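Question (not urgent): is this output format expected?
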Amino acid sequence: MRYSNFITTALLCGALLGGCGDKTPPSDKPAHTETAAPAKVEAVPRVARPDEPGLTAAYAALRKLQIANVDYKISVELDSKSSSFEGRVVAKTEIARPLQQALTIDFTGGEVHSVSVDGQEIPFEYNGYFIRIAPEQLQLGPNTIAVDYSHPYSTDGSGLHRFEDPQDGNVYLYTHFEPYKANRFAPLFDQPDLKASYTIDVKAPADWHVVTSTREEKIEDLADGRKHWQFPATKKFSTYILPLHAGPFVVWESKAGDIPLRLMARKTLAPNVKPQDWFTFTQQSFEFFQKYYGIKYPFGKYDQLIVPDFTIGAMENVAAVTFNEAYVSRGEKTQAQRQKLANVIAHEMAHMWFGDLVTMKWWNGLWLKESFATYMASLALAGNSEFDDVWENFYLRSKQSAYQADQLATTHPIEVRVPNTAEAFSNFDSITYGKGGSVLEQLPHYLGKEAFRQGVSNYLHEFSYGNAELKDFMGHLGKAANEELEQWTQNWLYKAGLNTISAAYTCTDDKITELTINQTAPKEHPTLRSQKIQLGIYRLQDNIMARVQALPVLYSGAKTPVKEAAGLPCPQILHLNDEDWAYVKTELDDKSVGQVTRHINAIESSFTRLMLWQSLFDSVTDAKWPLDDWITFALNNAGVESNINVIRLISSHLEAASAYAYRFRVPGELRAERLDAIEDFVWAKVNSSPAGSDAQKTWFETFTQIAHTDEALGNAAQLLSGEQEINGLAIDQDMRWQLIVLLNRHQYGDYAKLVEDELKRDNTDRARNYAISARAIRPTLEAKKEWLDNILNKRDQYKLSQIRAAAGALFPPEQLKMFRELSSQLFGAVPEVSDTKDTLYNKAYATLFPITCRKTDIAQYSQVLKQNKELMPALGRVLKNRRQQSKWCMAMADLQIKGRSN
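Got this back:
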């Protein structure tokens, strides 16, 4: 049954039987739907809320029935010295129906000093997760609920996060609430379909800026030296996108038409910020989105804040977007890095309409807002920016991550059942962003670009300042295109898995006589789908492999005869997904493979070369082409490639090839030969690429990942000391740290002293994380034990960003022996880590577990999963993935051995 039916059942059985707990439906098609109370039933039925963290979908649906409206006044006192803050929330709300159970207000990890209703202090219960107010304390109709509280600042990037700059001692605060963290800032009804307006006032140090969704209307000087910031009421939006940021930020100002823009960063980072890039990309995005949506920007002003310790890339807080400091480089950005910045700016701005103005009702709709913003960001850049390779970058980033995730055992439908907020967070993944965005990308090809745009605009107009569901969005798209999309929605959004297409064709007199598209699906996810692709027919002409024909084809089912292909030139290369319209894996026919491997550099289109290089490496990871043979091919052909996106792809594949070489059980001399060849090639490219080019910087970054011989490490040490220079390559501060991590990884030279000396030179927070990575990556059991102990037993002494820095560096591929020596402790701690119920910590711990190529390691993954069936999704999913990836690695190794024996 659908999830909407489950909600109805839960509410009804709650009314009859005193509550049905928090059971969730078995359906794999969980379109959550708000359900109105049955006619003539005045009381709100019961749904149990256990004394546990988080919020269930069933209880959220109940509370939506209890409350007809809510608006908040939030007063907060902030300072730079204490570890906690105080506040008062006044919630004006309307009780819609007689209550049969307590009303709860979400508030995790704080202290509640008092609760009053309509000015009268009342008794209450507080369990550390939410406040209970007995039904008799509330009346039908309007109620004013006031809560006085305090709460510690967070250090994990959620709630109200506190950061003290190690360079100058300044303190900065920012909020991050998605999906269920607003209640770590204040007592709130923290669910997306209880939209509210927020009137905020803040007392803060005199030299701080305070930022929320509206610009301040008054700032008063207080007798104690602080200032009192007062903000007008916001428009209505959900709690998870409410911002409050404060600190002595550096502020830059500009405009996008009549929209005031501000950009902010902490003082010590400010010299590295290039505000003109930020403002240019912001202005271009506003110009595109307001025209595309047909709706003027709804929130008045637009602030962007670059903040430290951020756990994700950026967040679409209404009119006060936060960005990870990783988007600020301490050297000259490559064009790819600049485009990545432009893309994230456009992504977050797309949310101002799709996500903030119109919001999903519950977290099963999270994918839609994220997928839509992922697609729209690329569309905006392609339509109005300086970048002409936007869709190549979309293919490199979003598509590839989605293809990888969709072939794992943990793949899931794009639209999934989300019974509680803990599982909402676990669905922030490459299916949510990459596959969803890729599926949306094909819809304009399927429906027509203008029909898609009109459907989006109509949807946003109808549901402005409200909440909506998937059916509302798809309904508007279908209506605008005059298409029935129910089956499309079921196949693409409610069913998991990646399809593969291939082609069978015959030619006579150098012309195609017949051509058929064949589609397959994995047995675990057997759905066959329909979508539009473009066939590219390539032939060699004057030593250039050029596309001589492009043919759009709508395929469906297991076989699709393509009658329109008859009479077209016989292909030397048949590219099935030319220009990447579709979300599908492709298999080249044997003739095309032969031509690609002989003429890869003759192919005229860089986008086609990019996709074909990826297709060839897919053959390696699918255990169809031996790794050694691919390495030989790559080193023989990659040297003349000049397109930066193809270079980025090849360099990443060479890094992956090096990692697999360490994992394979092969004789040492063969491994060394392979690794040395890659290292020599990469170092040569660092030195021969155009001076100061993005290609040179890309090859340098690859060098810091694959260098291993004494000669290469000596070169790295000399680059660091200045004894050696490479023409045009300026070693900036972050590149210095990459070299230091490399030298620590192999214990080359005075590796430990390099860390200490560099910290004296660079005492930034980013430097401290690099230093932790350098210490953790050292190939000694002593280092591994120390940092594993820190991660497991001393995590309260470290910020989450530091835990992540250590965990991500602890076991590189060449150090699998040490992973195995500590595996009992690593696997033994899994249930303890999971029991913390801390999603971010579980996610960090999961990065400790590597891909291996041994049955004994795979058996350990299987054992821990068998013994712990209820792990936090952020950890359990990774363990399942590592087991599967390790099996794939074994298949690759077996092919390698078989090929060598032949």
